[in-house]
Write a structure and sequence with these properties.
The complex is a heterodimer of chains A (about 100) and B (about 450).
Chain A lengths: L1 E3 H4 E8 L2 E8 L2 H10 L2 H7 L8 E6 L4 E6 L20 H6 L2 E3 L1
Antiparallel strand pairs in A: 1-6, 2-3, 3-5, 4-5
Chain B lengths: L4 E7 L8 H7 L5 E4 L4 H13 L8 H16 L2 E4 L6 H14 L5 E7 L7 H6 L20 E6 L4 H8 L4 E4 L4 H13 L6 H14 L27 E4 L5 E4 L10 H8 L9 E2 L4 E3 L4 E6 L2 E5 L2 E3 L4 E21 L3 H18 L6 E7 L19 E10 L2 H8 L5 H4 L4 E2 L9 E12 L6 E7 L1
Parallel strand pairs in B: 1-2, 2-3, 3-6, 4-6
Antiparallel strand pairs in B: 1-7, 4-19, 5-14, 7-8, 8-12, 9-10, 10-13, 11-12, 14-16, 14-17, 14-18, 15-16
The chains are: A alpha+beta (about 100), B alpha+beta (about 450).
């Protein structure tokens, strides 16, 4: 069954230097099981191909059914140096939720 | 000891809703108003202002705001804690005292937290063993030492606690962590031991939830955003803290927005790294321990927070000048809006190349197509595109190259593809790029101190 990450989770993103952080929060326990299984570092790195040029770090937060990702080398040099329209990675969360999952 | 205190967030950044602090002190009961004004870029801007005028260098909205809220704060006994002092907290406090005098306020005690500004001490500290290497890249400070515009240590809650113990009504700091502003009144009011790291972490987490203003009370909520009631009159968050470390996040009644499990959870993950290791000067908070319970009616309980001992270091943020940048834009309309914008980009790049200008980076984005989601953006059927804004940005160490780039945008209107408009703002001018140098400094090398200014 195909589903959109958007339908089972919400998210927020921001900047940490040249890295973007994306916290993905599942709406319920079932959704958390799905994101734990499908949102691997490899999958996320591939999803952000051409956006994230560094490594991806992944941290689970079962307490709020969330996974936090740090996408290194992503913001074009970081907040004030970056030439990107989205220099602070505010949109990375929405971009993450575009992901389609085959569950 | 009070059985609870209510700490209200008044600003999420310098430039946030101007009336938010006024609503926080008037629309319901609070004990503290905390306001975060300092983004990293702010410090360098303030330093430049201070270089031009020695009595500037702080958030200039602040005295004006205090004029408006001081009578209410005095009447209700609300204390104000803010890092809006920037690089000149004493001048900020003086300006607030001036406003208080004009209001005929008879007694007022303002505490200023000093010692965070190490710009003029970098050499001395280097000698004393503070290498100030870039904590992300490990590069030595010598790389940027001559270009430093500002250098500030992030202090935590404890200097503010000292200020509260000295009876301050208003506390103005320079560089203080956002979380310290909220944690400090909890330590002071409940007599918390700074070595009780679970309590330090509880207050720190509350500070993290408050530090971006309404971003925890419905603003920027990526869940069901259409369910958020009355964005226009959004209520900023309030932390109702209890002596045992439990905190209830809420907002004033009869305000817009929403405080729910989901809006608070979303703020918890904002700009964090390893959740087990959220490092502040006061503790290392474990965000994977936090429990949330939605109590309904815009109340969310935050509890069971665990923390560990603080590190031996303060974080330092230095800003330095790193060249120039400029951004140009033009709008292309149907038919073939995207093709025309892409063609214009090619033409401009060819002209820049022919001029032999030097750039570190040239970046093109098409607003309306791919400027926010890059390669994840869907391909569009061009007949369905009404308009596209071409956005080109350049960066260079050579100011002249950036200035010349700015002169090459408008000519595209008469010398490139048609259906183009939107060049009303004049030539883009080079603006200075301010870069950041994050570093660590051993805590024993710097000492915060608290100065009291008083009206009697």
């Amino acid at each position: 069954m195909k589903m959109k990450l958007l339908d089972i989770a919400h998210a927020r993103s921001g900047d940490k230097g040249d890295a973007g952080n994306v916290g993905v929060i599942a709406y319920d326990d079932k959704g958390f099981e799905i994101i734990k299984k499908h949102l691997t570092t490899e999958r996320v790195k591939k999803h952000f191909e051409g956006i994230c040029f560094g490594k991806v770090e992944r941290y689970e937060m079962p307490n709020i059914r969330a996974i936090n990702f740090l996408l290194h080398n992503t913001l074009g040099g970081g907040g004030t140096v970056s030439l990107k329209h989205d220099a602070q990675g505010k949109i990375l969360a929405s971009a993450m939720l575009r992901m389609e999952l085959d569950v | 000891m009070k059985d609870k205190i209510r700490i209200a967030s008044g600003q999420g950044f310098w430039g946030d809703l101007i009336d938010a602090p006024y609503h926080q002190v008037t629309k319901g009961d609070i004990d503290y108003l905390v306001m975060d004004y300092l983004a990293e870029v702010t410090m360098s801007i303030l330093q430049k202002q201070k270089n031009k005028k020695p009595n500037l260098g702080y958030a200039r909205d602040l005295p004006e705001l205090m004029k408006r809220i001081l009578p209410v704060c005095k009447e209700k006994g609300i204390k104000v804690i803010t890092n809006g002092g920037g690089v000149n907290p004493v001048a900020c406090a003086d300006a607030i005292l001036d406003e208080a005098l004009k209001l005929d306020i008879e007694d007022l005690k303002i505490a200023v937290v000093l010692g965070d500004d190490i710009k003029d001490r970098v050499d001395e500290l280097f000698e004393a063993g503070a290498e100030l290497k870039n904590m992300d890249t490990d590069e030595p400070l010598t790389k940027v030492k001559d270009k430093i515009l500002s250098a500030n240590v992030y202090f935590g809650a404890l200097p503010i606690v000292e200020a509260l113990q000295k009876g301050a009504d208003i506390i103005i700091t320079g560089r203080t962590t956002d979380t310290g502003l909220t944690l400090a009144p909890m330590i002071y009011e409940f007599g918390w031991d700074p070595k009780n790291y679970d309590l330090m972490a509880a207050g720190t987490v509350a500070g993290h939830i408050l530090e971006c203003g309404a971003q925890s009370s419905g603003g920027n909520f990526l869940g069901d955003w259409e369910s958020i009631d009355n964005f226009a009159e959004i209520g900023f968050p309030i932390a109702e803290a209890y002596p045992n470390g439990e905190v209830i996040i809420t907002k004033h009644e009869n305000t817009g927005g929403l405080v729910s499990y989901a809006t608070v959870a979303e703020q918890l993950v904002y700009e964090i790294g390893d959740p087990k290791s959220y490092i502040t000067p006061d503790c290392v908070a474990d965000f994977s321990s936090i429990r949330l319970e939605d109590l309904g009616n815009n109340r969310v309980k935050v509890y069971d927070v665990k923390g560990n001992k603080e590190t031996e270091f303060y974080k330092v943020s230095c800003s330095y000048s790193d060249g120039y940048s400029a951004i140009g834009s033009l709008t292309y309309s149907w038919p073939q809006a995207l093709s025309k914008a892409k063609a214009a980009d090619k033409i401009l790049r060819k002209r820049l190349e022919n001029l032999d200008l030097k750039f570190d980076e040239i970046r093109t984005e098409f607003i309306g197509y791919n400027s926010t989601q890059g390669p994840l953006s869907k391909e569009l059927d061009e007949d369905n595109i009404n308009e596209i804004m071409l956005r080109i940005a350049v960066r260079s160490g050579d100011k002249d190259s950036v200035a010349r780039f700015g002169k090459e945008i408008a000519p595209l209107i008469l010398t490139g593809p048609p259906s183009v408009t939107g060049f009303a703002g004049g030539r883009p001018k080079p603006s200075e790029v301010i870069a950041y140098w994050p570093a660590l400094i051993p805590k024993n090398l710097v000492e915060p101190h608290v100065k009291i200014l008083e009206l009697k």
